[in-house]
Design a protein that fits this description.
Structural class: alpha+beta
Mean pLDDT: 94
Number of helices: 17
Strand content: 15-25%
Radius of gyration: 25 Å
Distance between the termini: 61 Å
Oligomer: single chain
């Protein structure tokens, strides 16, 4: 294939996607779409695979999403049709209920040559809580109204019945309606741009080049894999809780790289949860949510990648059914973005073992998205809005510090300016900035966390803070660098009414209450005692690091803001110890893994594989209750505890 023509075609396809995204961005109604930009648009080839995405707008982590199954669940497409769905279990396209996906066929002489498609995250789709999402929910039925794949528009005519049902069930119908109209306009823009491309390149040229985009991306991905040493690399990471006040959620990965192919085997991941942290992947061997971390790795290795579904072809994912990464209906999935953040850290950890010289430390792994439902005292009308994603620090890079307040976990999400938030939502923001001493210490420092404090003016104001995590298990550091600081969530800090909320994600506030939240910091890389003393002094002047932390973590002594060279040399000499291992996890994970060793987890996984799905989470919870102290043989301790459970519960014995 002519690479010059292919690049020209790629530029046109990306421009078409950018135009779609710009239309949506400029005309959307809700803050979460028009400011935070939680949306996607894509150009699909005829089979439903992504061929092109924008680079400047919206979520950039959907290039491998597969629309094919959902598209195939609607019969008889005609010009002017638009299909839609938001059901996580119909085609495994929508990955939680607020994500409304729509797709429009592009016909030429009766043949579908492409699709314009994408999704918007609706601020609310009904359900048990404002904004529809909470880890406390236990089944998908509680997470809002669901629509299987069907036509939202048929031959240019809006499906009024489906729209009326949707608007009846959501808390702020005008937001959903405004975003839906903007979304439809974006798809119409995509159709115009794609028709112009068909005229420019011709039908056969269009077909050849849109297929060529995927083939070339596959070639680029395989070239990147060839640059990584062959081998088998194992890593595990944790979400703090499998439910309110629950036990850790372990995600496990065996990464096998052989030539230009890779296997990601997630066997050993915890069983599906009775909370909403499950990730619905439907046993798809290359589901995009499983591969988001891979996209980051590939793009780091080659910033000239064509972002499309071709990148997924060299990869095969093995995800046992009935686990947190492949739940069975009707498991709740609304908080899948929390688990997806841990998935990215999991993949980064495995690739860090494969190529430590090119990989960063862990990003924050938690991006809490705050939604407030309150009443405007002036109009006496209720207001529901997303006010900001509280993004953590980036993990340090091989040659520079981690990014402050914008890690890999939600780099696509934009913050909403304080002025806009206070104009549209009756709250007052008291603090919004970076959190000192939150980045992991290292030769290269982890990025700083973000902190936000605000107050409300009306009683019974309800706040959802989805994706609350990393209060316990810190973002890990590498090659001598230290783990980042954990996150926190506090009501009325520094007062007699202070309440530490931890990972609670639903809070009721009354007038005068103050809510504080800060994200985790990114992990550090390299020995902190090797960081130049002048850099540490500069961090202190900027407010990134306190003078106390400079001495404690970096061995740098400051006198009146200047480095005391003799005292620094002496302190650093006294702090030096044996060489550190590859990872630094922090004391919380080390304490957990003294009880729950790799062998103990392997034994629990073997037990789970023999149990019906509906018993697994129950058994895991009981095993954790029984095993509270380290054992000489963790696997034997798990077997003994399970034997006790079988004796206690006759149904389990059967």
């Amino acid at each position: 294939m002519d690479k010059v023509t292919l690049q020209v075609f790629s530029n046109h396809a990306r421009a078409a996607a950018e135009n779609m995204a710009y239309t949506l961005y400029r005309t959307a109604h809700s803050t979460f779409v028009k400011e935070t930009e939680d949306f996607t648009v894509q150009i699909l080839e005829p089979g439903g695979q992504v061929a092109a995405v924008p680079m400047d707008f919206g979520a950039t982590w959907y290039p491998g999403i597969d629309y094919g199954t959902a598209i195939g669940m609607i019969d008889g497409y005609e010009p002017g049709d638009i299909g839609f769905t938001n059901d996580p279990y119909s085609g495994f396209l929508a990955t939680h209920v607020p994500d409304l996906h729509m797709w429009k066929p592009i016909f030429e002489d009766g043949e579908i040559l492409a699709w314009a498609c994408g999704h918007i995250h609706n601020t609310d789709m009904g359900g048990a809580v404002p904004a529809s999402l909470s880890r406390t929910l236990t089944e998908v039925h509680q997470e809002g109204i669901r629509f299987p794949p069907m036509k939202m528009v048929a031959r240019g005519e809006l499906n009024d019945q489906a729209l009326r049902i949707m608007l009846l069930n959501v808390r702020k119908p005008e937001q959903n309606l405004g975003d839906l109209k903007a979304f439809r306009g974006a798809l119409d823009t995509g159709e115009r741009k794609l028709r112009a491309m068909i005229r420019k390149f011709g039908v056969e040229g269009f077909k050849r080049n849109i297929a060529g985009l995927l083939d070339y991306a596959e070639h680029q991905a395989r070239e990147a894999l060839r640059s990584i040493p062959d081998g088998e690399y194992r890593f595990a990471d944790y979400c703090d809780e499998d439910g309110p006040d629950g036990n850790p959620v372990r995600l496990a990965l065996r990464l096998v790289i052989k030539g230009d192919e890779a296997i990601l085997d997630f066997t050993g991941t915890d069983p599906q949860l009775t909370s909403a942290l499950n990730v619905p992947t439907g046993s798809h061997p290359r589901h995009t949510l499983l591969l988001v971390g891979v996209y980051y790795v590939l793009y780091t290795l080659n910033p000239n990648l064509m972002l499309n579904a071709g990148l997924t072809r060299p990869f095969t994912c093995i995800v046992p059914e009935g686990t947190a990464l492949n739940p069975v209906f009707p498991a709740a999935v609304g908080m899948r973005s929390l688990t997806c953040a841990r998935l990215r850290s999991l993949i980064f950890g495995a690739f860090s073992l494969a190529m430590p010289e090119r990989m960063p430390a862990a990003p924050a792994g938690s991006s809490s998205i705050l939604n407030v439902m309150t009443t405007d005292n002036r109009t006496r009308r209720s207001v529901l809005a997303a006010i900001n994603p509280i993004v953590g620090g980036g993990g340090d890079m091989p040659t520079r510090d981690g990014t402050n307040g914008s890690g890999a976990d939600s780099a696509y999400l934009k913050n909403t300016p304080v002025e806009i938030t206070e104009t549209e939502v009756p709250i007052r923001i008291l603090r919004y900035g970076l959190m000192p001493d939150s980045g992991g210490a290292g030769r290269w420092r982890g990025g700083l966390a973000t902190a936000l404090d605000f107050t409300v003016f009306a009683p019974n104001s309800r706040v959802t803070a989805r994706n609350r995590d990393r209060c316990r298990f810190r973002p890990w550091g590498t090659l001598g660098g230290k783990a980042g600081a954990p996150s926190d969530f506090v009501l009325n800090p520094g007062t007699t009414r202070q309440k530490v909320l931890g990972n609670i994600d639903l809070v009721t506030m009354d007038p005068g209450d103050v809510l504080h939240i800060h994200s985790p910091g990114g992990g550090g890389r390299g020995d902190p005692l090797e960081r130049e003393a002048d850099r540490v002094a500069q961090d202190v002047r900027r407010g990134y690091v306190s003078a106390e932390a400079a001495a404690r973590d970096y061995g740098v002594v400051l006198r009146d803001g200047a480095v005391d060279e003799p005292a620094t040399m002496a302190l650093r000499a006294s702090l030096r110890g044996p060489a550190a291992g590859h990872f630094h996890f922090g004391p919380e994970r080390l304490a957990h893994e003294r009880i729950w060793t790799d062998q103990a987890y392997a034994e629990m996984t073997a037990i789970m594989n023999e149990l019906p799905f509906h018993w697994r989470f129950f058994v895991k919870t009981r095993l954790f209750a029984l095993l509270r102290e380290p054992a000489a043989d963790g696997a034997a301790a798990v077997r003994a505890a399970f034997a006790e459970l079988r004796a206690t519960y006759p149904g389990l014995a059967a």
